[in-house]
Amino acid sequence: MKDFDLEGLSREMPYRMPEHFLDDMTERVVSQIAKQQHKQHRERRIVALFASAASVAAVALLFLHPFGGGFDIPDYESISQCASVDEVLQNMTAEELGVYSMMSNYYGN
Amino acid sequence: MKRDQSDIVNNQGSLSVSDESIARLLCDDNHVEEAVRLIMKKYGEPLYWHIRRMVVAHDDAEDCLQETMINVYKYRSTYSNEYPLSSWLYKIATNESLKLLKNRSGFTLSVDDLGVSLKDSVREEAAPDADETLILLQEAIALLPAKQKMVFNLRYYDDKSYEEIHQIVGDSVNTLKTNYHYAVQKIKDYILEHQL
User: Fold this and answer.
1) SS3 state at B154
2) Least CB–CB distance from B70: residue in A2, A12, A29
3) Whole-structure pTM over 0.80, yes or no?
4) What are the domain boundaries of chain B?
């Protein structure tokens, strides 16, 4: 049976690579990478800016209201001691009613 | 950045930088551009031909090579020194070539169904003065299933060992040897059948 000597064949390709192709490609890739690096750098700066703004706001809040003082927290203990729900609702201010309705929605009652 | 002593100037006068040095530069944000330039200088041509043998058309090879290099930059943190840099580069280039062929084949066909259209492109893409046997060889390669094609090209053209091909393709050495054997047989049959 006839055999073909594959190993003896030239490793040359029947195609051509355009002149300066690799140099042009290198420049294109480098410029794309530079763009991506610039974009990443800008994104990192924005994140850092937001993080410092959030830290400043947190510190400012701590100074203005240390330990949460100054905020009106509904007195849930006295509510639980009342005889009926209707009575509690009648004694509630509009703001407390709002908090109550929000909690009811949350717990599904 | 300090380079290895193995970074030598060869007799053609061009700098031959070790893969270890390139890998170190690649992981350093301030030297990525230098690393990419060195990779293109050292591996640009073999990677281009590896891709071109898979996708045949120059324009497709151009897109794949560009995407390969962008992925080298994007995923540089995933490179592990356990494997040679060249295997990692070839793996990315192989994946990009397969991705392009998969996109070309669409949802209904597999990459292996593209054989005939790739074979037809060989003659269109060949240089006017190209050797007829070399054209037949590329046609035969184009008709091979993707796995056989990858193994054959990496072994026949890039002189890769089965261990290196295993790092690139992922199959066991025995499977690779079988694929190579079948590929050689099919190529010989095709050339004998079509040679004048």
Assistant:
1) helix
2) A29
3) no
4) 14-194
Residue B137 exposed, middle or buried by CB count within 10 Å (0-12, 13-18, 19+)? buried
Quote the tokens at residue A92: 């509630």
Q: Which chain A residue shows the shortest CA-CA distance from B56?
A: A15
Summarize pLDDT for B161-185 with one digit per residue, the tens.
999 999 999 999 999 999 999 999 9
The CATH architecture that domain B14-194 belongs to is Orthogonal Bundle (1.10)
> How are beta strands B15-16 and B8-9 bridged, if at all?
antiparallel
Task: Look up residue B16 and give its two tokens.
Answer: 């031959």
Mutation for B interface: A3, A6, A15, A22, most B CBs within 10 A = A15
- In order, the DSSP letters of B83-116 are S-HHHHHHHHHHHHHHHHHHHHHTTTS-GGGGHH
Distance from CA of A52 to the nearest CA of B (A): 24
pLDDT in tens, B53-110: 999 999 999 999 999 999 999 999 999 888 899 999 999 999 999 999 999 888 778 8
Q: Which chain A residues touch B137 with a CB distance below 8 Å?
A: 9
Q: What is the spatial distance between Cα A95 and Cα A44, in angstroms, rounded to a whole number?
A: 41
Q: How many CB pairs under 8 A join A and B?
A: 86
| Nearest-by-CA chain A residue for B50 | A13
Of A6, A11, A15, the CB nearest to B184: A6
- Show residues of chain A in contact with B191, CB under 8 Å: 4
Q: Which has the closest alpha carbon to B169: B50, B14, B10?
A: B50
- Nearest-10 Cα torsion for A42, A43, A44, A45: 50
**Is there a contact between A11 and B157 (Cβ–Cβ < 8 Å)?**
yes
Residue B186 · residue B148 · CB < 8 Å:
yes
